[in-house]
């Protein structure tokens, strides 16, 4: 047992230095990463159907799923950002599809929407123009389909960024590397390799 302790004492400093350097890099990266803000809301979609010269709006699960997928398309998101007057840099253009997430709620005509952006004022403008962009984008589901959009929950922008806590992640990284390092040192100690 004393040989293992001596072996750990001999190499623990290297594990601590390695853990410190990597956790410092994690802290610096997360600390200087731009804050990301989130907006969330729900909309309900109805589609116009004509039957015996009588027109009415009704829900359609299949079309709602297609509609939700179309909201994630680069063309719609690009149109939305332009409608909101938000200039996109090269980084944002490359990550455009990640800026909006949609999910249809349990085989219904309700779509949960989340929008992510680094500038809170621009995000508020995007949310303000979201329904207008939906109504003015016939290519989203085809120009021959008429839709009615009802807002269930208006898009609400969280004032607090969603980025992780840099100090917490750095500490977690440090302890994780320290733990793994001790296991490796113990595994390759002289008494264990006999």
What does this structure look like?
The chain is of the alpha+beta class and about 190 residues long. The protein has two domains: about 55 residues; about 120 residues, EIF_2_alpha (Alpha-Beta Plaits, 2-Layer Sandwich), CATH 3.30.70. It contains seven helices and five strands. Strands 1, 2, 3, 4 and 5 form a five-stranded antiparallel β-sheet that branches. Helix 1 packs antiparallel against helix 7. It is elongated, with a radius of gyration of 26 Å. The two termini are about 15 Å apart. About 15% of the residues are buried. The mean pLDDT is about 80.
Question: Care to give the gist of this entry?
Answer:
By secondary structure, the chain is α+β, with helices and mostly antiparallel strands.
Into which percentage range does the β-strand content fall? 15-25%
Count of strand segments: 5
Average pLDDT level: 81
Number of helices: 7
CATH class group of the largest domain: Alpha Beta
Whole-number radius of gyration? 26 Å
Q: Please identify the structural class as seen in this structure.
A: alpha+beta
CATH architecture identity of the largest domain: 2-Layer Sandwich
Can you summarize the main beta sheet?
A: 5 strands, antiparallel
Shape summary: elongated
Q: What level of helicity do the residues show?
A: 40-55%
> N-to-C SSE series?
HEEHHHEEHHEH
Give the terminus-to-terminus CA distance. Answer: 13 Å
* CATH homologous superfamily title of the largest domain: EIF_2_alpha
| Poorly predicted residue ranges | none
Question: Can you tell me the number of structural domains?
Answer: 2
